[in-house]
Every structure is written in structure tokens, then in C-alpha cells.
Amino acid sequence: MFFASVPITKGFSERTLQFLDDFLNAVQSNTTSSGAIPSTVLPLIPQSIYSKPQFSQFFSHVYVVSLPHREDRRAEMERVSQVLNLNWTYFDAVSSDNPSVATILEQVMANRAEMTAIPWYPEEFSWPVNLLSGVLTHHATTNPSASPPDSAILYSTVAPYLLHKDTERRFEAKTLPLTCATGNKTSGPPYNTTLPPHLILSPPKIACWYSHVRLLQHIAGQSNNTIQDESNLAEAYLILEDDVNIERDFHGRIRSVWAVLPSDWDMLFLGHCWSNESYWPPLADSPSSDFNSLMTLHSSHAPKCTHAYAVSRRGAVKLLAHLSYPPFAYSRALDQAYSWLIQTGRLKSYSVVPSIVVQRKVLASDVDPGESGLGSMWRERLTNGVF
Questions:
Q1: How far apart (Å, rounded) are the C-alpha atoms in residues 271 and 263?
Q2: What secondary structure does DSSP assign to 185-205, as a single string?
Q3: Can you tell me the distance from the alpha carbon of 2 to that of 5, in angstroms, rounded to the nearest whole number?
Q4: Rounded to 10 degrees, what is the CA torsion of 68, 73, 79, 82?
Q5: What is the C-alpha separation between 118 and 129, in angstroms, rounded?
Q6: How far is CA 368 from CA 21, 105, 288, 294, 371, in A?
Q7: Residue of 343, 338, 274, 273 lying closest to 310 (CA atoms)
Q8: Cα separation of 209 and 212, whole Å?
Q9: Each residue of 28-80: pLDDT tens digit?
């Protein structure tokens, strides 16, 4: 099996709280002949992070998730940086042809095959009541380099009878394509050629998930006290993808958002797609806002797309615990996972309406080419964007 088994009875042991670091690095290692992950694992790939002086009154750090070879996109993003005086760190994304992606797909396939082979295995999983037990406390300690929690061990709390190493039942990654699960289901619908692309669990979707989770892992291990009067768990981090356009008055709009954003937030969507994010009533307007007539802040409804969102450090830790829980991990596109966690109240998320960061869709997409090769059909316009 892909996931290690270490029984736990009460919350998380200290070893459990180390799980993500081992899990995320182990997936690129070849499994042994018994199907187990070797105890000695190698790093994924050299993690190139291109740093620039950071600027933000509200964000401890700004990251742009970007494939290293997409110099065309990074050149366009440099224009945004210069116009807005918004500096960031490029965080190298994982490409869909990385061996780790194939390994993840193979193991998801093997795990689904094992689960469906057991007649009494439930069609839907339940979240453990202790999923977050001890996690936030662990990351609130004074040790800023503490590894984010490792989720592989959690599999033993769901279905210990699946943890055998019966290699005869492993599926090779040569069968029909995997499909995206929905809700709390353990598998997606049966594959057929008429399924829409968003229901196909493709290598680019896995690579996107893996890239963002590695960044969340990096964020969860940070400790930065530059934001006054906030604990390190409340620190804010902005995550952008490298195909965006941003409103020119971005800093003023963020200032307006921050005036009304609840202090216990986990996620904040500055851009979103395929959802009516004004579904819930707007939060009370800020008296100091200059942008009340232009935008509102709402509790998130079901936001899709991952091109522009912020997380608190607390939110990053909570996301990691959910995204690496084995029945849920890599089960669908990352934005579908975010949306489901929000819809079911497992995250406290808010959305700016209308979006103040949008996808440009003028250069080739690496995740969802769509019919045009530039991405899905969803399009948005800004009031006065950089481009």
C-alpha cells in the first residue's frame, strides 16, 4: 500500500505530526517489491525558489506557483510586479511528467482497487473526529522549523484492514483513466469517453495538487512575526499562479478587505471561477473603505480555480491535514477539493466579489487546455487591470 501504517489511538503522536514531510517526499521514491514505501526517502527535486524583496502591508509572503521552464509566463508576471510594486517569490511547480506524478496516480489507482474489492467498504468515507487534534498546537510552538504533519499514517484510522502488502492486488497504471471523486466518495464515476475533462483525474491535475501542497507545507513550517498583533498562526500568505492579471489599485482593495475580514479566517479568494460567490450576503462594510461601491466580501460559497488565494498559517495547516488524508488525497482536482471543504464547513473561507485577480488565458495552459489550449471557457474582466 502507498500509505504507511502506524496505529494511533488518541489524536496524533509526535511521529504522526511529522507525516507530511515524509509523505510528500516519499511519493517520488520507488516502492519496494512488497509495495511499501522505503524507509529512506529522497527529496522530490531541488526546490528552486527565486526570492525578491517582499512587499505587503498585510501578507508575510507572496508566492507565485510557476513551472521553471515557463519563462514566457514569468516575463509577463514581472510586468505585474513592476506596475504594482508587488514583489514575490517564485515557487517551482511540479510538471505533469515528473516521475512523482505517475507514482501518485499509480498508488491512488491501487488504493481505490483495494477499497472497491472489499464488499463492506463504504462508498463514502468519514473524516476522523481527531483529524486536527494537536495539529494547530504543534504548529503554534516556538519551533519554526517543525515539519508539517505527515498524513500517510492516518490511513490506519480509516481502514486498517487495507494496510496489508498484498502486491498481487496492486493495479498497474495501464488501465482506464482515473476519474475525479465528488463529495466524500472514495472513488470517481466509472470512466467512459463521454465524461467531461473536469472529471478526469489527469497527470496535470495531480501535478497541480502536488505543487500547491508542497507550498502549503513550506508555509506551515514558517514563523514570521512581521505582522503586528497577530500570532504566527494568523500570518497571511498570498498564493498566485503565473497567468494572472491584477487590478491596479490592488493594495487599496486589499486594505479594504482586511478592514472587514474576520480574524479567524483560513482562506481568502481574491479570484475565483465557476461559482456564484455572492451567494451569501456580504459582510458589513468597512467605514474606512474606498471601494465599497466596487466590491464586497462574502463567505465563500463554492469557489473554483487556484490562481489567487490567501491562506493564514492556521489555514495552511488545516488544509494540509485534509488534503493529505488518504481517502481524500489526490482524489480530484485541487480546486474541487478546496470547494468541497468550504461547502462542508471544514474551512473558514471568504471571497472578494468581483474578483480582483483573474486568469489571463492568453498563453498555453499546463493544467486544463480546454478547446482553445488556453484554459476553460470561464472568462472575467477587471475594472482597471495591469494588462
A1: 20
A2: BSS-PPP-TTS-GGGB--HHH
A3: 10
A4: -30
A5: 24
A6: 28, 17, 40, 30, 9
A7: 338
A8: 5
A9: 444 344 333 333 322 332 333 434 434 467 899 999 999 999 999 999 999 99
